[in-house]
Amino acid sequence: METVKIELAQGERLERVLEEQGHADWHVVQQTGSVLRLFFINLDPRDADLHVCVEQQGPDCVTELYALGYLSGSAHLSLQTDVRHRVGQGRSRQVVKYVLNDHAQGEFYGRLYIAPQAQQTDAQQTNRNLLLSPEATMRTRPQLEIYADDVKAAHGATTGQLDESALFYMRQRGIDPAEARRMLLAAFLGEVVDALQDENMREQLRRRIEESL
């Protein structure tokens, strides 16, 4: 497993798109006022096992973790995140979206830790999944450990199928069923794509998703 260790100095900013990581272990330490934006993109049928640990060790840090997976065949994708707010006045956001087809398997284990002294922390964690086949499986386990009382913290996890009423509505208006399906899947994954600040990277990722769906 590849191990990556990064320390962001005071006020430093890092945005990185990581595609088809395979097996990787990321550990990032953030100092005061630093900004971290990581995008994990997996549109490959190969297996992947990713571990991401982020520690905010100074105030006013921003952590944003995004993950997008479209898996088919018998591929397996496991993502584990561990975001630790050691001090106060930090923000974190996690958005993880999987689309699983055939016999694909997905896992997301997300830990969010807020220390007793980490007051005025704002932390959000979201995991949304679509299963396109009855044989596809998803396991999700959010874990919140909050020891401060002046915080905003929220998490949500859902797993379901494509909206049949939306598909019917689109077909009634002459849209081909396969195209309607692709449009709904692209819209579902769009939250991660739209978070990219680089316009060229957004367009490249949209094209890759369209080719994969």
Quick structural gist:
This protein is α/β, with parallel strands linked by helices and 213 residues long. Helices cover 19% and strands 51% of the residues. It starts with a strand and ends with a helix.
Describe this entry's structure for a reader.
With 213 residues, this protein is an alpha/beta fold. The protein has one domain. It has three helices and twelve strands; from the N terminus they run ββββββββββββααα. A six-stranded parallel sheet has the order 1-3-5-7-9-11, with no helix packed on it. Strands 2-4-6-8-10-12 form a six-stranded parallel sheet, with helices on one face. It is elongated, with a radius of gyration of 18 Å. It starts with a strand and ends with a helix.
How confident is the prediction overall: mean pLDDT? 91
Q: Main beta sheet, described?
A: 6 strands, parallel
For the biggest β-sheet, the strand order reads 1-3-5-7-9-11
**Counted beta strands:** 12
Low-confidence stretches: none
Give helix and strand order, one letter per element, not per position: EEEEEEEEEEEEHHH
Domain module count:
1
User: Helicity range of the residues?
Assistant: 10-25%
> What is the beta-strand fraction?
over 45%
Distance between the termini: 29 Å
Number of helices: 3
Give the overall silhouette: elongated
Q: Which structural class do the helices and strands define?
A: alpha/beta
Write down the Rg: 18 Å
